[in-house]
Amino acid sequence: QLAGLAVIAFGLWLRFGGVMADFASDKKSPEYFFMGLYVLVGAGAVMTTVGFFGCCGAARESQCLLGAFFACLLVIFAAEITAGVFAFIGKKVAIQEAQKIYEDTYDDYMKNPGGKVNGTIYRYHLALQCCGKDTTEQQMGLPCPENIQMPKASNCLVEIQNVIDAYLHLVGIVGIAIAGTTIFGMIFSMVLCCVIRNTRDMI
Question: How far is CA 89 from the centre of its chain?
């Protein structure tokens, strides 16, 4: 149950918090990449529910409930693998789409520096700690956050790639940890089920 809640919290944070929240709120957000996160959150919700029934099955020593618990964990494990596949397959597409969102916002700002897009591009710069697409653009009047390290953080297209790579690394670590927990849960549920059956046969 705790692992399921942790997965839900982590998936929602990646989807609606941090740097990716700025791109997720855009109409052209990279939904293909977020599909993996949706599956991850769904798996976490199922894990939380299934964990409760697993506890009931162990407390009642019910082979039926423990068998159902094992089957549900197997489905969750498959969902976690699917989420990982979606995240890593969609990596390149997500980077390209996120970079295109920034480039479109950048072009809109250049056409109308005083418009509403001024706040949008500044929000991107603040979240990514970058400014523009090359080292000369900070002098062109772009809204850049203070105290950013130039020129390392001057290319926002590179920073977008770095951020998505880092997030995918986190998803991979959490996915491996939760998958390991799921495997142990399946093993223990089967062991407990066999012990209960053998005990009843002896009686």
Answer: 14
Distance, in Å, from the CA atom of 89 to the CA atom of 100, rounded to the nearest integer, reads: 18
pLDDT tens by residue, 102-145: 888 888 888 877 666 677 777 778 778 788 776 555 545 677 77
- Please determine, for residue 179, whether its predicted confidence score (pLDDT) is greater than 60: yes
Residues 137, 154 contacting (CB under 8 angstroms): yes
The model carries a pTM of 0.64
Count the domains in the chain: 1
Q: Which DSSP symbol is given to 26?
A: S
Q: Judge whether 11 lies within some domain.
A: no
Q: Is residue 40 part of a domain?
A: no
Virtual CA dihedral for 175, 129, 100, 23, nearest 10 degrees? 60
In angstroms, what CA-CA distances link 55 with 1, 36, 60, 112?
10, 28, 9, 60
Instruction: Please give the Cα distance from 175 to 160 (Å, whole number).
Output: 22
